[in-house]
Amino acid sequence: MLGCDVHCCQVPALAEDEVRMLKERARRVRVHVLRATAEAGSGHPGGSLSSAEILATLYFKVMRINPKDPGWPDRDRFVLSKGHAAPALYAVLAEAGFFPVEELLTLRKFGSRLQGHPSMKHTPGVEMSTGSLGQGLSTANGMALAARLDGRPTRVYVLLGDGELEEGQVWEAAMTSVHRKLDNLTAFVDYNGLQIDGPVTDVKSLDNIAARWRAFGWHVLEIDGHDVRAIFAACEEAKATKGKPTVVVAHTVKGRGVPFMENVVDWHGKAPSRDQAEEAVRRIEQEAE
Amino acid sequence: MMADAPKKIATRAAYGKALVRLGEINPDVVVLDADLAKSTKTDEFAARFPDRFFEMGIAEADMMGTAAGLAASGKIPFASTFAVFAAGRAFDQVRQVIGYPGLNVKIGASHGGITVGEDGASHQSVEDIALMRAIPGMTVIVPADAMETEKAVFAAAQHKGPVYIRLGRSGVPVIFDDNYNFEIGRAALLREGGDVTIIACGVLVSFALEAASRLSEENGVSARVLNMATIKPADDEAVIAAARETGAIVTAEEHSVIGGLGSAVCEITAERFPVPVERVGIRDAFGQSGTPEELLRAYGLLPEDIVKAALRAVERKRGTTR
Predict the structure, then answer these.
(1) How far is CA B107 from the centre of its chain?
(2) What is the mean pLDDT of residues A229-244?
(3) A126-140, A199-213, A243-257, B42-56: lowest mean pLDDT where?
(4) Do B67 and A121 touch (CB under 8 A)?
(5) Which of A188, A267, B243, B266 has the most neighbouring CB atoms within 10 Å?
(6) Angle of helix B261-272 versus helix B236-246 axis, rounded to 10
(7) What does the DSSP 8-state code read for residue A38?
């Protein structure tokens, strides 16, 4: 199930030290997510934890960005369409140096640059304001079109939730990406299987996500969304795929890395207490050792 | 002034021509449309600059999002469709990814109001100005004629931030010449007068001028006429001066009296210089099929309706000052 539908063996692989580095970054993302949401007393840890490896691999291996010059015109761009995973996005941005790591603990507080959902006006490194689901892919298409018009090497990445695919605009945008042959665009679906009201399959059955995208004309890959090697390989394959956009259906576990949160619907939009967060951090650190 | 049949041009037609001229001098200008390019008149831009025109199909939400992404990458997108779809169907997209981040997207919304005519209420926006005006930071412009439309398009491109430009389907008389100095947020004095001020926008500006002539000739009432093309930010000072100097105001718009020009003027006068205000507009109703002329009559938007409103306002003023 979890293989590329084209031969992956030809794309460059990560070196062992890079794999270690990315796992460490993902681990730190998880720690930041837990501490920031605990400090805020609200937020969305479940879907932040499920996207840790995707974000870490994009920001620390795949994307061409310059935190010292966030407006560099040739940079790659990332849109967090599932905006409620803001704690994870803020974590990679801080780790990358867009703003101090200490600022992560101001998440959701009055006067903070780290709004409850991403705001490009407030936060360095945030490329699009998101939070109202279903809108990120359209904006990513716009960025990809602009890059093409200007002849820039920019690649655009967008992360969608699986429940988010219930929004009709996603499929309007999916048609645009294909119609415009946006091969400089790569979408990820964080397929953790849960949304606020329950399992995605119960809320509105979303069987055969990959087949749906394929039917829309996308190049579709299906991977383990916690495997940094697979994430990197998928991005490389997307780069090599011409004439159509690529979507990576990333099978993930909601709450991944925190045993009491894994696959528990309630942790979609509930913050851990400080004690729970520290217990979770201990587990994550033990696992790393 | 209406003796010779005046030259009539629809503001949407002027919009299409202005985009081409703008496109010639500004390579960052791009245009999007949602399967209505022939109606919004963006087809001229499409033919001239095919690489900078994006036909988005029947997908207004996607169009607004794509425009936001283009703007986030330094482009100046003009996203065009009918007003009812731009402000209504795509409201959340305009709010979330254009308004909230303050992106440099211009929305060219044609077929505003009931003069859409035969298509009926589903295609006649009577509340778009209210919706757009409520979005923080959104500039809302309703040009009165072809010349003002062209100037508004260029001014919108110069302005940093989101702009909503409401255009009409039907031909309207040309009021301004090339010497007209359009400025966002600035009302234009079209006729001086001391008894009452008619503040109008869009299609009703030429009617306001006609009403002012009739008021002078038939009623001995001297009416000032202001063209308030920018509904937001409104020209507060011009409204306050009108209130102070004429003591009575009539607003005239092809839009619901709830949330549009009439509301904007009442908000200003109520807070800063209360005077009698009469609002000519659509009275909390949807439109219907008919010719533009039939509909303007049915919904009380003709020059004679403005005259009656002006006489009521003057009467109220006298009543309160006595």
Answers:
(1) 12
(2) 98
(3) A199-213
(4) no
(5) A188
(6) 70
(7) H
C-alpha separations of A263 from A231, A257, A267 in Å: 21, 11, 8
What separation in angstroms does the CA of B265 have from each of B112, B210, B223? 20, 21, 17
DSSP, res A224? E
Q: Which two tokens stand for residue A55?
A: 């974000």
CA-to-CA dists, residue A128 to A69, A84, A123, angstroms? 17, 13, 10
DSSP single-letter state for residue A60: I
Question: Whole-number mean pLDDT of chain B?
Answer: 96
The pLDDT value given to residue B322: 41
Structure tokens at A287: 């696992």
Confidence of residue A11 (pLDDT cuts 50, 70, 90): low
When mean pLDDT is compared across A200-214, B54-68, B243-257, the lowest value belongs to A200-214
List residues bridging with B78 in a β-sheet.
B31, B106
Measured in angstroms, the CA of B146 and the nearest CA of chain A are apart by 30
Mean pLDDT value of segment B307-319: 96
| pLDDT reading at B3 higher than 60 | no
User: Which helix (H) or strand (E) covers residue B200, if one does?
Assistant: strand B196-200
Band of the pLDDT at A205, cuts 50, 70, 90? confident
CATH of region B8-173: 3.40.50.970
Rounded-to-integer distance, Cα A227 and Cα A224, Å? 6
Distance CA(A228)–CA(A258), nearest Å, equals 18
Q: How far is CA A69 from CA A59, A124, B26, B285, in A?
A: 15, 10, 26, 52
Q: Which residue, chain included where needed, has tokens 């995208």?
A: A213
Q: Spot the catalytic one: B44, B60, B254, B278.
A: B60
Please list, residue by residue across B175-203, b when 16 or more beta carbons sit within 10 angstroms of its beta carbon and e when fewer do: bbeeeeebebbbbbebbebebbbbbbbbb
Backbone angles phi, psi at A247, to 5 degrees: -115, 135
- State which residue of chain A sits closest to B76, comparing Cα positions: A146
Start and end residues for every CATH 3.40.50.970 domain found in chain B: 8-173
Third-level CATH fold of B188-321:
Rossmann fold (3.40.50)
CATH number at residue A103: 3.40.50.970
Q: Is B60 a catalytic residue?
A: yes
Residues of A in contact with B97 (CB under 8 A): 128-130, 135, 138-139
B55 Rama sector, left if φ>0, alpha if ψ -120 to 50, beta otherwise: beta
HSE toward the beta carbon, residue A57, CA cutoff 13 A: 24
Is B96 in contact with A129 (Cβ distance < 8 A)? Answer: yes
Q: Which domain holds residue A56?
A: 8-288
Q: How many domains are contained in chain A?
A: 1
> Which residues, in sequence order, are CB contacts of B267 under 8 Å at separation 6+?
none
